Amino acid sequence: MNKLTMGTAPLRRVLSFAVCVAGTGLLSACSLLSSSNDSKLSPPATNYSGEGIVSLAGPIPAIQPPSAILASARALGFVPTQAIHDGSWVSIESSTGMVRLMNGSSELRSGVAEGAKNLRTGTFQLRHKHRSALWHAPESYFASRGLAVPAAGAKDRFLRGALGEFSLFIDKATPIHSGPLWTQELGGLRIEENLLSSFYYSLEVGAPIEVR
């Protein structure tokens, strides 16, 4: 005879416990009850069988594979990350003017530049770089100063020193320069010469320039 049956079991001690788990799609109720002859407890009306076996009131959830658990954890714990470039590159914050010379994820040098708010956001490449480059002044440069406008291609249109000792070009019309001042005609970004010299010698043509 089954030793856990009611009324005739020789078991002298009362064993009783109930476990309830609440949750969508999880085990909703589970009970196990066994008693001896001298117990005064009455068995519940439900979730109990006379043989003292476990009675389930809901389905047991399916076992998920590790891949599904990891995918769920990644979805809940997702944190955006900033893209990191290999080697030397430049980070420019258009809102603050902060310019950083980077090597991978490490900052080498930084400073504040003029003209950053006028730059287009995006990731560019260093097109070319020059020492003591000539600058081709547009007509607006002469007109705004009340000067006669030289003919197109005239040597008076090419000014030396306007871009300073060092200049790096994002494209043909956007220089990062170390000129004595920033003007609308020059455009681009003006950086202190000592800082820009580090950019000049650290960056190769094609290096990423990220404007955010």
List keywords for this structure.
alpha+beta; 5-stranded mixed β-sheet; 4-stranded mixed β-sheet; elongated
What topology emerges from the helices and strands here?
Blueprint: E1 15-19, E2 30-34, E3 55-56, H1 66-76, E4 88-92, E5 98-103, E6 106-112, E7 122-125, E8 128-131, E9 134-136, H2 139-143, E10 158-160, E11 166-171, E12 174-177, E13 189-190, H3 193-202, E14 208-211
Parallel strand pairs: 4-14, 12-13
Antiparallel strand pairs: 1-2, 2-3, 4-5, 5-6, 7-14, 8-11, 9-10, 11-12
Question: What is this structure, in a nutshell?
Answer:
This protein has 212 residues and is of the alpha+beta class.
- Please give the number of β-strands: 14
SSE order in H/E notation? EEEHEEEEEEHEEEEHE
- Poorly predicted runs: 1-50, 75-81
Number of domains: 2
